[in-house]
Structures are given as C-alpha cells and as structure tokens.
Design goal:
There is one protein chain. Strands 3, 4, 5 and 6 form a 4-stranded mixed beta sheet that branches. Helix 1 packs across helix 3. This protein has 3 helices and 6 strands, in the order ββαβαββαβ. Helix 3 (116-135) links the parallel strand 5 (101-111) and strand 6 (138-150). By secondary structure, it is α+β, with helices and mostly antiparallel strands.
C-alpha cells in the first residue's frame, strides 16, 4: 500500500525519519512554503467589477450614445443629480462571473447615422479586450441589445445640472 503526498509523489508507508540531521539547513533568504508565491491563494472578482470594466469599454466606442434602456437612463439621470452621486458605470451592463469565465449582456443606445452592426462589433471587441486584459477572465459571450437610437434633434434625457 502506498500513500499520496500533497505534491503527488508516491511514498511507501513506514516510520517517519527525522531528517533534521541529514538535511542541509536552508539559507535564511530562501522562500518557505514551496511553489510560486503568485499561486498561493485565490482571487475572486465581483460581478460589479466586471460590469464597470465592460461599461467603460463600451462607452469608449464611437457611435455609442448611452448605456441602458429608457427607464434605467431616467433613474440614472435622477441619481446623477443627487449630491455625491456619479454616473453609474454599470448602467446597461449585466455580468455573470464564474471562476475563470464571464458572460456579459449590454444594452446600448446608439447615435443616428452609424452602422448598428459595426458599432455592435466594435463594442464586442473592445469589451472583450478590456475585460480579459484587466480581469484575466475568459469572456465567453457578449450579447448586445440596441434599445434606442439617439436622433440629432432629440434632447438628452439626462438634464444638465444647475450648478457649474
């Protein structure tokens, strides 16, 4: 009968030996614990973090006027006017984050006159690149819903603040 040690090597059963006399002492500067320090422990990334990264990356694409549907933008405009409030970077973004993969759903408003398919392709590429670079997660899909088109003569739903 053999036992498996944590390192995966096989050793025969028997009395433990005291190796303190036969094993050379380690230099005080040598790392303890074995293995690469970067692999000790686990990193978890919250859904909100991935949503913020994806939202910022999507907004950077030419042709994206806003993120989120009409109701989300209306509530966001009210929230933005509250002192201390800021634009919600996660508006219009939903992420499902696993241990090594993520899937994203984006809702966008585009500017009139741009190609919807080109904007969607550019958003998808920019979001995937940013999320994978910043989080190390594999992006398995980015679903994009275009909920509105911003016409040139339409006023923004997000009113300007009264304070300068």
């Amino acid at each position: 009968m053999t036992d498996m040690t944590e390192g995966g090597s096989v050793r025969a059963p028997g009395p433990e030996k005291d190796l303190s006399e036969t094993t050379p002492r380690k230099d005080p500067g040598t790392r303890r614990g074995g293995g690469d320090p970067a692999t000790r422990g686990r990193t978890t990334i919250a859904d909100g973090v991935v949503e913020k990264v994806a939202g910022m990356a999507a907004r950077d694409v030419f042709g994206v006027h806003a993120m989120g549907g009409g109701l989300a933008r209306t509530f966001g405009a009210v929230r933005d006017r509250v002192p201390g409030g800021s634009k919600a970077a996660t508006r219009g973004v939903k992420a499902e984050v696993g241990e090594v993969q993520t899937a994203l759903d984006l809702e966008i408003v585009i500017d009139y006159g741009v190609s919807i398919t080109d904007v969607a392709k550019d958003v998808r590429e920019n979001v995937i690149a940013a999320v994978e670079r910043m989080t190390g997660l594999e992006v398995v899909e980015v679903n994009i819903a275009v909920s509105d088109v911003k016409l040139p003569e339409e006023e923004d739903e997000e009113p300007e603040t009264r304070l300068q």
